[in-house]
Amino acid sequence: MAVVFALFVSGAALNYLGLNYSGDESVSGLKVHPYVVFTLIGVLVFGVSFGTRQSKMSDRRFVTPVFCSALVIGVLIFKSMGSGRQSLGFAVDTLVSALWAASIVPFLNERMARRVWKMGFVFVIVECTMAIIEVFTKIEFIPIDTWYGSYFRATALHGHPLNNALVLVTVAVSLQLSATKKASVVIFLLTIGALSAFGARGALAVYLITNAVWFVRYGLQSVRRLPFVMTGVPVGVAILSWVLLSGAFGDRIANVGAYDDSSGVRLQSIQMLQSISWGNLIVGTDPDQILRIMENANVSVIENFLVAYIFMFGLACTLLLFLCFWTSAKVLARRWSSGSGGSIYLIFMVFFATAMTNNSLVTKTPALYLCVVFSWASAYIRNEHKRTGWHAMLAEDRLHIVSSANT
User: Fold this and answer.
1) What's the DSSP call for residue 93?
2) Residues 314, 308 contacting (CB under 8 angstroms)
């Protein structure tokens, strides 16, 4: 249920229904997303002994992410106190819930992993179809109060186009790592179309580079595959060039190489760090001072989540947050062999590379939560494929040996 809500019921949808999920008004409404509630219930179930079920509090796979979540909550409480308190309500849904998910998924079985994978595949189909239909009809299914100038950008399931892009790339890359070749091609084509509809140039670049590396690596694994790759590369480049430059799936992507206001804001976001003292750089900056710096730079939004975190939390606490997630990912990956466990690190690398191109992680988003869940599901399924493949090979060898002996 938590994954269903995280995938298909976005904060934008809750706002559209009048539940004031991400609004600043102090009126009644849903301020914590249902997927966070379901995940917290899961943590409590695993953490408490009842009946024949034993508590997981003695298991490192459970304790480490829970302890890291406690550290993150401590950072949030510390930074929200005092006269220069920060507005950090987003962080429970965006950061803490992901660590809670990391404490639960190691104890789930293959059936659950495959069920999560199927839900992710359905999400990619629904999300991408909505985005492509929106860009052709110029009608948003879940409209949001954001203006994009002369460009139309799809909002699909998750509201803001860049938030959609981050969620989609995370899920798509995870699915492709454990998908069949045909399913991976379908995911790739749909994702390219949707990212173009979102106008997410940074996410599109990260996604294309990731798939290009996979494609070349696939070709180098066999002499038979190499001609296929050598033929496929120019054909693929030609098709992608037409999709991107023709504006068929979004006029903004046709200017993919242009240095516009959006590109300038990303550079200005980094340059603004030079406006604060070393003390503020280490411990964080007062919100009023951040607003003054943004006004002086004529920047309305800091389009880089890492820069925004350094402003809000300071370099010391930002490093602590990254250490918490790195440690949890390391514990999550330790269960499997280097190939399957390494996929978790790869998914996180693609996730953070995509996240660096926008500020989605400074808002309420299930992106990091889904990164944890789907990296686990992908690693689990990859590991099962390797194990069953190895057993099948051993069985074939045994059959050959027995046949030879009988002969």
Assistant:
1) I
2) no
Distances (CA, A) of 332 to 32, 95, 114: 26, 16, 18
29-79 pLDDT, tens digit each: 567 899 999 999 999 988 887 766 678 888 889 999 999 999 999 988 888
Q: Is the pTM of this model over 0.90?
A: no
Cα–Cα distance for residue pair 200/116, rounded to 1 Å: 26
Instruction: State residue 38's pLDDT score.
Output: 95
The Cβ of residue 4 has, within 10 Å, a number of other Cβ atoms equal to 15
Higher pLDDT, 110 or 298: 110
Task: Report the b/e string of 111-146 with b at 16+ CB within 10 A.
Answer: eebeebbebbbebbeebbebbbebbeeeebbbebee
Q: What is the pLDDT of residue 265?
A: 59
Q: CA nearest 140: which of 128, 125, 120, 157? A: 157
Rounded to the nearest 5 percent, the helix, strand and coil shares of the chain are 70, 0, 25
In this predicted structure, the answer to whether residue 22 has a pLDDT above a threshold of 80 is no
d(C-alpha 5, C-alpha 202), whole Å? 27
Distance CA 153, CA 196 (A): 9
